[in-house]
Specification:
single chain, alpha/beta, Arc Repressor Mutant, subunit A, D-Maltodextrin-Binding Protein, domain 2, 3 domains, 5-stranded mixed β-sheet, 3-stranded antiparallel β-sheet, 10 helices, about 40% helix
Length: about 300
């Protein structure tokens, strides 16, 4: 039977430390276990590996050769580990990213172009979804989400606050007290936007309901009605005007999230660092403050 790697490690530990007890302590085994294993190896090889003296264990020529072989093997293992670690530090491979459609078009897409320019070995699969995909099942590797309460099983970064305000067409009436509204339906964000609109207009004044926030901006621009929009988008469109200040009850938080098992993966870490750096100068616009620039 060939001698296995663990027995090489045992022989080297005994040679380096001069005895069974310190070698066993180093390997995390009992001295009696170390004694039995050494006896079994010597029997298998048909050669004594150590001379037993009162001062300790002294390797024989066969023991020295086996300890030297163990040292070479350990060095090869260490070299392999370094090579794998170096490769792992280079972002590469498939990265699956999910975000809502509005975040993709308004924020994420310009960032993806610049990310790819830096990391040519990373291929991106972008999953546009209004629903929160299950990162634990690896439906995606990274999620860009606007939420007040990110899932507790994910880790990530808080990128900033997303302010919302009421917008109308730039050429609309000066007094919009009796204007029609466009609104996301009750199915969106737990009914947050629908409740906001309902508190300001009766159901007969809601001209259009949408089952997502996608299309809100276009509907307002076309004069269908006034309605809520994220400030980073509404403020940069010449055909719109802001009718209110940021509405605290609509404010959300932008998160970049991943599963704990993926947070140290090079491609995930590189992407999260990149997006965080890109979002930083956009915060004034996201928060509805004058002077913010867009993506």
């Amino acid at each position: 039977m060939p001698v296995v790697w663990d027995e090489f490690r045992l022989v080297r530990a005994i040679a380096d430390r001069g005895g069974l007890a310190p070698a066993a302590a180093h390997l995390g085994i009992n001295p009696s276990t170390a004694f039995r294993r050494l006896a079994a190896v010597e029997a298998e090889l048909g050669a004594r590996l150590f001379e037993r003296h009162r001062s300790g264990y002294v390797p024989t020529p066969a023991g020295e050769a086996m300890a030297a072989a163990a040292a070479r093997m350990e060095e090869e293992v260490a070299r392999f580990d370094r090579e794998v670690a170096d490769r792992a530090q280079t972002p590469s491979g498939l990265l699956r990213v999910t975000a809502a459609a509005t975040l993709v078009t308004d924020l994420l897409m310009p960032m993806l172009g610049r990310f790819r320019a830096r990391f040519r070995q990373v291929q991106i699969e972008l999953i546009t979804s209004e629903e929160a995909l299950n990162l634990s099942r690896r439906d995606a590797d990274v999620a860009l989400r606007a939420t007040r309460e990110p899932p507790s099983n994910l880790v990530g970064r808080r990128l900033g606050t997303i302010a919302w305000a009421v917008y109308g067409p730039a050429q609309g009436k000066a007094d919009d007290a009796d204007a029609d509204w466009v609104s996301p339906s009750e199915a969106v964000a737990g009914g947050l936007f629908a409740r906001f609109v309902a508190a300001r207009a009766g159901p007969e004044r809601v001209a259009l309901r949408l089952n997502s926030v996608q299309g809100l901006c276009e509907a307002i621009c076309e004069g269908v009605g006034i309605g809520p929009l994220p400030c980073y988008r509404g403020d940069r469109i010449a055909g719109l005007r802001r009718l209110s200040g940021p509405e605290p009850e609509l404010a959300g938080t932008l998160w970049l999230l991943t599963h704990p098992d993926l947070r140290h993966a090079a491609r995930v870490r590189a992407f999260m660092d990149h997006v965080a750096a890109e979002v930083a100068p956009l915060r004034p616009a996201m928060e509805g403050r004058a002077g913010g620039r867009s993506a």
